[in-house]
Design a protein that fits this description.
14 helices; TIM Barrel; 16% strand; eight-stranded parallel β-barrel; 328 residues; alpha/beta; two-stranded antiparallel ribbon
Length: 328
C-alpha cells in the first residue's frame, strides 16, 4: 500500500450547516495530525435543488483555505442514480457535487452506489420493484455515470462508488412485501462486490472507481454469511478511496442512538480502529496495491478518541510489509 494521507470526516451531524463548527472540527483535525478532511455537501449547505450555491461556496472556501489540510468530498447520502425518485435531479445533485469538488480543489467525490432499491418501499406506499425494474435501475446508473464521468475528468475528480451496509428496516420491508430475508442482496445489491464490479467493468472509466468502506463490508459479510477478506480482495483492483471505522459485524435492532447501540455492539458504530472486530491488518494486506488516502469515519461520540484512532491506524499500517506513506 502507498498511503497518501490519513483523513477524518467532518460529519453532517456535527457541522450541520455551521461554519463555526466546521472551523472547530478542522482546527481539531489539523492539531491531531490528520492530513486531510472529508467534507459533506449537505453538511455544508453547498447545494440546493441540484444547483451549487456560489455565495455559500465562497464562504466555505474562505474557511477551508485557513488550514494546511487537503480535502475530499462526500455527496448526499441519499443520492441514488439507479432508483432515485427523480433521476434528472439525482444527476444534477451529483454534477453540482463535482462542481463543489472543483471549487475547493478536492480530487475525490464519494457517491453511494445506487444499488439499493428498498427506500421507496420503506414507507409501504409502493411495492418492491420487479426484476425488470431492478435491471433498468442498474442500467440507469451506468448511463448516468457515463454522462458524469467526463465531467468529473474535466474537474480532476475521481468518483468513488461506496458499498453499503444492511439494516433491520430493510429486512422488515422485505417481510412486509412477502419476501424472505435471503432476498436482501437482490434488493440491496451494493452489499456485495460483484454487482458493483460489473458496473465498473461496464463503465471502464478512469475517473470512476470504488470507495471501499471496510466497516460497511464487515457487517454485510457477517449478515450475508460471506467471507470478509475474500470480498476485500475482490474489490481491491477497483478501490480508489478508503473509508475506515470499526464495528462488530452485527445488524442493528432498530435503535438509532449510538450510545445505546455501543454496549451491545450493534450496527455500523463507526468506532476507532481497534475497538471492534474488524481484522484491519489482514484487510490491508488484501489491498496491497492500493494508492490513495484513508479516511477515518469516526462518529462524533468518540471525539475524545480521534487522536487515538489516527495513532491506532498508523500503527497498523506501519507494521505491514511494503507499506509506505507518500506525498499525494
Amino acid at each position: 500500500m502507498e498511503i497518501h494521507g490519513f483523513g477524518k470526516d467532518a460529519s453532517d451531524n456535527y457541522v450541520d450547516g455551521s461554519l463555526d463548527r466546521l472551523e472547530a472540527m478542522l482546527t481539531y483535525t489539523e492539531k491531531l495530525g490528520y492530513d486531510l478532511a472529508e467534507v459533506s455537501v449537505p453538511g455544508l449547505l453547498a447545494v440546493a435543488n441540484g444547483k451549487l450555491l456560489p455565495q455559500r461556496v465562497r464562504r466555505i472556501k474562505e474557511v477551508l483555505s485557513r488550514y494546511s489540510l487537503r480535502y475530499s468530498v462526500h455527496a448526499p447520502g441519499r443520492s441514488n442514480l439507479a432508483y432515485g425518485y427523480d433521476h434528472v435531479l439525482e444527476k444534477s445533485v451529483i454534477r453540482a457535487s463535482i462542481e463543489f469538488c472543483y471549487a475547493i480543489g478536492a480530487h475525490r467525490l464519494v457517491v453511494h452506489s445506487g444499488l439499493q432499491a428498498l427506500d421507496a418501499a420503506r414507507t409501504g406506499m409502493v411495492k418492491l420493484p420487479d426484476d425488470a425494474e431492478l435491471a433498468r435501475g442498474v442500467d440507469r446508473e451506468i448511463l448516468a455515470l457515463q454522462e458524469l464521468g467526463p465531467i468529473a475528468a474535466d474537474a480532476g475528480v475521481v468518483i468513488g462508488l461506496e458499498n453499503g451496509d444492511p439494516h433491520l428496516w430493510e429486512c422488515v420491508a422485505l417481510q412486509q412485501n412477502t419476501k424472505p430475508p435471503q432476498d436482501l442482496p437482490k434488493y440491496h445489491a451494493r452489499l456485495r462486490m460483484e454487482p458493483m464490479i460489473r458496473q465498473l467493468e461496464s463503465l471502464n472509466h478512469p475517473n470512476i472507481g470504488m470507495t471501499l468502506d471496510l466497516g460497511h463490508l464487515h457487517i454485510a459479510a457477517h449478515v450475508l454469511g460471506d467471507n470478509y477478506l475474500e470480498a476485500v480482495e475482490q474489490a481491491a483492483p477497483w478501490v480508489r478511496h478508503l473509508h475506515i471505522s470499526d464495528n462488530f459485524g452485527k445488524l442493528d435492532v432498530s435503535v438509532d442512538r449510538e450510545a445505546d447501540r455501543l454496549p451491545y455492539g450493534e450496527a455500523d458504530l463507526h468506532m476507532p480502529p481497534g475497538w471492534g472486530a474488524i481484522p484491519f491488518a489482514e484487510a490491508f494486506q488484501k489491498l496491497s496495491g492500493y494508492q490513495g488516502d484513508v479516511i477515518l469515519e469516526i462518529k462524533d461520540l468518540y471525539w475524545d478518541h480521534f487522536g487515538d484512532a489516527l495513532n491506532n491506524l498508523r500503527e497498523i499500517v506501519a507494521a505491514l510489509p511494503g507499506t509506505s506513506k507518500a506525498n499525494p
